[in-house]
Design brief:
four-stranded mixed β-sheet, alpha+beta, globular, 4 strands
């Protein structure tokens, strides 16, 4: 009886354990219930939206016969920080003129512990209402980048092996402006 009780709670614990969105491929990610739900902008799961942008980007890599990106938490933190700074200081640029130590994307990456022999950044924003799923928002952001030559080059550049995607939201009356940043890393530098 006690073993059945323990087994029940072990199953219950595993049932509510969150999925690591970066340990599945984009096809399996797209099948997750939560990624296909309409976004409640008052209760947004930022991590899910960031993962959706990451997975949609990997779909493009596969589509063009490129190796998929590896998730990099330090790049994700740098990207999330920059998206948040763009909302906080009301600007849209790769250059943060408001924080000297966070001015350039490579400075932000280094601040969060990323050190690469080659790096790049994509930024975008777009506005959405209540009728979008996490996957639809992510697909539309990646489509913006893929329709821009310089951004597409970053996404498809096989020198870049690692990726982090950051999101921040700004409310504009009935719309939500989604600021998205992608930080790319090539070969990691070895720091003694």
């Amino acid at each position: 009886m006690m073993l059945a009780f323990i087994s029940f709670f072990a199953c219950l614990f595993n049932a509510v354990k969150p999925v690591n969105y970066y340990q599945v491929d984009y096809k399996n990610f797209y099948q997750l219930t939560e990624v296909n739900q309409l976004i409640d902008w008052n209760n947004l799961n930022i991590q899910l939206l960031e993962a959706a942008v990451f997975q949609c980007t990997n779909e493009q890599r596969v589509k063009y016969s490129k190796p998929v990106f590896k998730y990099a938490e330090d790049l994700n933190n740098a990207a999330t920080y920059h998206s948040g700074a763009m909302v906080k200081y009301n600007f849209f640029s790769h250059t943060n003129q408001f924080e000297k130590k966070m001015k350039a994307f490579y400075q932000r990456m280094k601040f969060f512990g990323a050190s690469f022999n080659g790096c790049a950044e994509n930024i975008a924003y777009s506005e959405y209402d209540a009728g979008y799923t996490y996957l639809e928002v992510a697909l539309s952001l990646v489509e913006l980048w893929m329709n821009s030559e310089g951004h597409r080059v970053n996404i498809l550049n096989t020198s870049y092996k690692e990726l982090g995607c950051g999101i921040s939201i700004k409310r504009l009356n009935q719309w939500e402006r989604v600021y998205a940043t992608q930080d790319f890393g090539a070969k990691r530098n070895i720091i003694p």
